[in-house]
Design goal:
Largest sheet of chain A: 5 strands, parallel
Helix content of chain A: 40-55%
CATH architecture of one domain in chain A: 3-Layer(aba) Sandwich
Number of strands of chain A: 16
Order of helices and strands of chain A: HEHEHEHEHEHEHEHEHEEHEHHHEEEEEH
CATH class of chain B: Mainly Alpha
Largest interface: A-B, 40 and 47 residues
Shape of chain A: globular
Structural class of chain A: alpha/beta
CATH superfamily of one domain in chain A: Response regulator
Number of helices of chain A: 14
Distance between the termini of chain B: 38 Å
Shape of chain B: globular
Strand content of chain A: 15-25%
Oligomer: heterodimer
Strand order of the largest sheet of chain A: 2-1-3-4-5
Strand order of the largest sheet of chain B: 1-4
Number of helices of chain B: 12
Number of domains of chain B: 1
Strand content of chain B: under 5%
Radius of gyration of chain A: 24 Å
Structural class of chain B: mainly alpha
CATH architecture of chain B: Orthogonal Bundle
CATH class of one domain in chain A: Alpha Beta
Radius of gyration of chain B: 20 Å
Order of helices and strands of chain B: HHHHHEEEHHHHEHHH
Distance between the termini of chain A: 57 Å
CATH topology of one domain in chain A: Rossmann fold
Helix content of chain B: over 70%
Chain lengths: 419, 299
Amino acid sequence: MARKRVDLDRRTVLKGAAAGAAATIFAPNIVAAQSKVVRIGMPTILSGRVAQLGTSSRNAVQMEVEKINAAGGLAGRQIEMVIRDSKGQPQEAARVSRELVNSDGCEILLDAEASSGSFAVQEVAKDLGVLVMHTNSETSSLTADPKIRIPLAFRSCRQGIHDAVASGAYAAEIAKAKKLNRWGTCSPDYAYGRDNTQLFVEYLKHFYPQAEVTTEAWPKLFQPDYTEVITRVLQSKPQALYSALWGGDLTSWVDQANIYALFSQMEVFAINMADYTALTAVKNLPKGIHSATRYIKTYPATKANAEWGDAYRARFKEYPTNWSWENWVGINFIAEAAKKANSADGKKIAEAMRGLKIDCPFGTDGTVTMRADDQTVIGYAIGWGTTIPQEPYVPEVKGATWDTILQLEAEWKKRNNYT
Amino acid sequence: MNLAALTDCLTSASCLVTQTTSGLIIGMLLFLVAAGLTLIFGVLKVVNFTHGSFYMLGAYLALTVNGLTDSYFLAVLAAAAGVGLFALVFERFFMSKVYGSNVLMQLLVCYAFILILDDAVKIIWGPEFKSMGMATVFQKPPLFIAGGIVPVFYLFLIIVTLILSLVLWLIITRTKFGTVVRAAAVNPSMVSALGINTGLVYSGVFVLGGMLAGLAGGLAAPVRSLTAGMGFSILIESFIVTVIGGMGSIAGALLGSIMIGLVRSFGSIGFPLFVEGLMFLLMAIILILKPSGLLGKEG
């Protein structure tokens, strides 16, 4: 029998020796570090036009991590957040995420990116096999589409399809009561604006088939002057107008539409109005704009929600945003799942998280659930109401019904071959 | 494309009034920024890429002064004066060092200041967007002229800008300073040989250009979302205006601004999904037919 010969050249020996030395030097530190802290990497937007959202995500996580660590951390290991700025660029989000895992030793990713960045982070998580919690991406396909979904990726924020059903149902009810048949739309001309508006119109017509869209306006993202868009909408004289504008674009548009008295000429449904970033920025907020709640401390009208909103404000001198509560949900799901699994291991946390229900100030019934089949959160509070120019800004909120949302979401998934 | 809607609009008095005034207001605010840009280029032969940042600075200064004094008019004046002062420092200590250098060097200096000013705004006023709010005097219902809607505030802006255009024209064509400026634009060596301090003339022109941008920022602040980086989009449109009107021509900038305003206004009715494209198409056509711009000097 021939004996297999093992060739050892100089390079192989040197490589082996180097690896051995590295293992001897660094292994004890790694073991010691693992037993002490668990690092969670957080790519988010800390500079640029939407930096406020990234900052508010960081703030919310910071507040919660302190509580979780005080209660023992993740299965006995203290959490150490490693937060990096992606500047809102998908390629940077991917690069930063890879670095967080490979160089900074993060074992879990808390992805506080906008949708475009989240898809990039999802690819990194898939490649490196780490647990990722998407805390801000509302694009439904991220977790709904089985071709995109991965076992270690979860979502802790609202989802486009849920919003669309809730919005369509609310708007249809107003439309029926006021006979609003002629509709216009004015939304930013990029993926979110287009998808959100198309879904809203679909469900508005589902609940109120008489509704007809007679005019569409698609201003550019970050457009400074909306004059021609506003006058075009006024010329077409719709009875109601839907807008998915957000942030500074929305406040600019409101200021400019205000001087054309647009709000007295039609019912306006601006889905992103009821977030403190926009509500507090507009100096002459018109009364009676219909809006979905993004984050307001009065909805859900619970003590826990109000206390959290006040605590955040007391600490950071401003109100939380939509992204703040979504990050609260993300980090708390990780903590509760780690408790259930009695482990800080990403795979074990993922297993424990599927179907997990946790107490939450932002849930319709005080809880939210991580749905097992598509690993996305359900049961969070979605409501619509009309604005007033001072606090509480949206005094009466009509909550959406989750039974209807889930039923129509299932049909939507079927239509899109997601099930 | 909706040509039927455009035809309906062109034959309807109410639509004509609304769209024409909206086109004028878009154009007039653009003109104030573009006029400074083209004036600086015409005399100094420098493309001031920081001009959009001057506009941003004007808007933020107006926000602060308005907050302190509750007076929109004081806020606008402070915006013009403050940006003029900043432009003086910027020109004396930085831009004057790169006059005559290649465009790349000028571009680098300007780009550095765009980044510095954006960050300075974030440090001083915060990273989140701000809204100044409408002055009480303009919180009035819009006027209805021939069925068309004309906001009172926009009417004020159009009148103010037209007066400023007239004043600017008088300064350039009827004053000694204007004569020297025009001479320096054509032959700076000869102006210098006549004993005139061209450095002072250059500073004066740069300050005037900066004041116009600051004024535009202050005037527009009540209807704009204030955020770091807000100068960038207006800079691009101002460049389109200066290219259409002819680099260095103030009258060309006025013509170009009004054309862009009207194209945006009526284009949104007939070609709602191609409004941006229409602007660039207009620029391309003019560049093909007259490469120096409508009122620019050849070669």
